[in-house]
């Protein structure tokens, strides 16, 4: 056993863990961060987009230095069938205003930069080591068992991802519920910057974020995503784990079919796949948050379930940063009082309640359930939109009928009452 005792041990070198370690080290605490991968970000494929507001508070103008890819100035949302694609395309310079801007990123690169900033602040990072267990004495977490070593600290911060086995060992949560998480597959497809700018109508460092519903997830809860990087595209699909067994397609097959769709294939033509990865993603919002405070331990980021999918927007990285900041503030208070009990560390929960993290999760707490119980969003509505627009724009030389009648023919296939009910439930959940 090591004779050294640290102020804090952080498990996991993703955004949440690294930011927490960075903030504590900046205040003079002796911090060690243990990362299972060979380097920070090596095992992360989440999304590809970070909203800057939370990290910008901690590292002002970070995007000037950080290896971000493109500033997102175009949002696209598509309803897709096997042969059609109906897209809402929103471009605005307002999306790029500092403080409310967002960027596409490659986590393997971005997380390494963030880890370097943490090391500069004094964090000791140990990569390539898995934390197998926690040291617990008299009901208090006193450190971790990492490889052949036991490392002790006043506080242990768990940032080991959505499938946090350490939180499970503590009894903070049970097995993951299949309807609480999604399984995703993603490819990084290399293309020349000029090709990306031409195909996506981007100028300079501008970029596009594009979400798809319907065909990419085989009509099940989930969808596809596309983010433009400097010289590559992040393209992937996600579907709720509980829905994977309901269809005939595997997730890798969904991704392959998505790539071959007539609306997508031209966008990645002549591209070279340079990375393929899969990952579990927290999807249930407030419903899946476990216990996050214990004697000598806090849980942050994905391990705490701090992520939300609103259909038109997916947020997790800004939640990870904000939860790390709240955790660091709680630890600093505990350090000052020399009290790392659950009762004293409970201020972490209070800080989260005051932040946008818990306020947003509570505001949208019903939306994941709405998506889960409204499968028409992923099968019938994309088909209705495509068929309606086909009738509007395809000219056959036949007498035209009133537009109202054309619309109602397609509405009636789903049922006007069903549409009204779904719309009302959707509005209430938001």
TrEMBL record:
<keyword id="KW-0560">Oxidoreductase</keyword>
<dbReference type="InterPro" id="IPR039651">
    <property type="entry name" value="FixC-like"/>
</dbReference>
<feature type="domain" description="ETF-QO/FixC ubiquinone-binding">
    <location>
        <begin position="183"/>
        <end position="278"/>
    </location>
</feature>
<dbReference type="InterPro" id="IPR049398">
    <property type="entry name" value="ETF-QO/FixC_UQ-bd"/>
</dbReference>
<comment type="similarity">
    <text>Belongs to the ETF-QO/FixC family.</text>
</comment>
<dbReference type="InterPro" id="IPR036188">
    <property type="entry name" value="FAD/NAD-bd_sf"/>
</dbReference>
<dbReference type="Pfam" id="PF12831">
    <property type="entry name" value="FAD_oxidored"/>
</dbReference>
<protein>
    <submittedName>
        <fullName>FAD dependent oxidoreductase</fullName>
    </submittedName>
</protein>
<keyword id="KW-0274">FAD</keyword>
<dbReference type="GO" id="GO:0016491">
    <property type="term" value="F:oxidoreductase activity"/>
</dbReference>
<dbReference type="Pfam" id="PF21162">
    <property type="entry name" value="ETFQO_UQ-bd"/>
</dbReference>
<keyword id="KW-0285">Flavoprotein</keyword>
<feature type="domain" description="FixC-like C-terminal">
    <location>
        <begin position="367"/>
        <end position="429"/>
    </location>
</feature>
<dbReference type="InterPro" id="IPR059103">
    <property type="entry name" value="FixC-like_C"/>
</dbReference>
<dbReference type="Pfam" id="PF26311">
    <property type="entry name" value="ETF-QO_FixC_C"/>
</dbReference>
């Amino acid at each position: 056993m090591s004779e050294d005792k640290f102020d804090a041990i952080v498990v996991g070198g993703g955004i949440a863990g690294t930011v927490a370690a960075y903030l504590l080290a900046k205040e003079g605490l002796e911090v060690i961060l243990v990362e299972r991968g060979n380097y920070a970000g090596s095992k992360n494929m989440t999304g590809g987009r970070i909203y800057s507001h939370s990290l910008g508070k901690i590292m002002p103008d970070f995007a000037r230095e950080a290896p971000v890819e493109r500033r997102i100035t175009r949002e696209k949302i598509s309803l897709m069938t096997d042969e059609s694609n109906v897209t809402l395309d929103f471009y605005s310079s307002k999306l790029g205003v500092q403080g409310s801007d967002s960027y596409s990123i490659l986590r393997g690169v971005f997380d390494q930069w963030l880890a370097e900033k943490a090391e500069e602040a004094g964090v000791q990072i140990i990569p390539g080591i898995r934390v197998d267990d926690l040291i617990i004495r008299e009901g208090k977490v006193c450190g971790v068992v990492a490889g052949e070593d036991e490392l002790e600290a006043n506080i242990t911060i768990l940032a080991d991802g959505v499938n946090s086995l350490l939180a499970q060992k503590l009894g903070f949560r049970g097995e993951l519920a299949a309807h609480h998480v999604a399984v995703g597959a993603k490819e990084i497809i290399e293309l020349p910057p000029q090709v990306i700018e031409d195909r996506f109508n981007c100028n300079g460092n501008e970029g596009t974020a594009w979400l798809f519903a319907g065909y990419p997830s085989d009509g099940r809860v989930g969808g596809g995503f596309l983010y433009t990087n400097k010289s590559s595209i992040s393209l992937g699909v996600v579907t709720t784990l509980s829905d994977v067994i309901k269809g005939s397609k595997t997730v890798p097959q969904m991704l392959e079919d998505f790539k071959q769709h007539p609306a997508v294939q031209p966008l990645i033509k002549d591209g070279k796949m340079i990375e393929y990865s899969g990952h579990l993603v927290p999807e249930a919002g407030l419903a899946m948050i476990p216990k996050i405070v214990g004697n000598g331990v806090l849980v942050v980021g994905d391990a705490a379930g701090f992520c939300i999918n609103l259909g038109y927007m997916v947020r997790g990285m800004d939640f990870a940063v904000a939860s790390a900041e709240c955790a660091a503030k709680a630890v600093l208070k505990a350090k000052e009082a020399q009290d790392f009990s659950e009762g004293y560390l409970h201020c972490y929960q209070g800080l989260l309640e005051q932040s946008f993290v818990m306020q947003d999760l509570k505001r949208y707490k019903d939306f994941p359930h709405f998506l889960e119980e409204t499968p028409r969003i992923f099968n019938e509505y994309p088909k209705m939109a495509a068929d309606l627009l086909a009738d509007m724009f395809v000219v056959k030389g036949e007498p035209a009928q009133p537009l109202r009648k054309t619309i109602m023919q397609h509405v009636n296939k789903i049922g006007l009452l069903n549409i009204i009910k779904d719309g009302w439930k959707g509005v209430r959940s938001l």
